[in-house]
Amino acid sequence: MPPGFNLPFVLSVAGAFLTSAVVASVYVWPFVRAMPRHDALRLLAAFHAFRFLGMNFMVAGFVSPELSPDFASEVGWGDLTAATLALISMAALSRRWSIAIPMVWIFNVWGTLDLLNAYYVGATKIQNPGLFGAGIYIPALYVPLLLAGHVLVFMLLLRPGSEAQRS
């Protein structure tokens, strides 16, 4: 196995991805696809508004002092940006602004790429997931849930039909 490979952590993350996908497809997707499009997108964006939690990677004592400050900063600020974009999307959807759907696209693309980048950087640069300290649950549980939410948002954005039928 490669150095730094931690099978229990990898299995935990894989289990969270699988469970998130199953719950999203069995329980969440049937519910949100039946909702008016703006309402469904607003609901899914609300879940992502809590991404400010990633800022905790920069809090002393939350993670190991040995965790790369560059990694912590990248994760924290990326998540705060995603949370801000989610909140702006929620406001735009609630007020039916003309920029609402483009804003959701921006939020969803940014948020997805930010999470994938954090996993990539974490997997290639962080040799010990124990350095995440109390933050271990963010990549092990919260990120798989967030990625499942991003997939659902993409599914809603890409559904065929006119805007008038889906609003």
TrEMBL record:
The chain crosses the membrane at residues 6-29, 41-63, 75-93, 100-122, 134-158. Keywords: Membrane, Transmembrane, Transmembrane helix. This is Uncharacterized protein. It comes from the Bacteria.
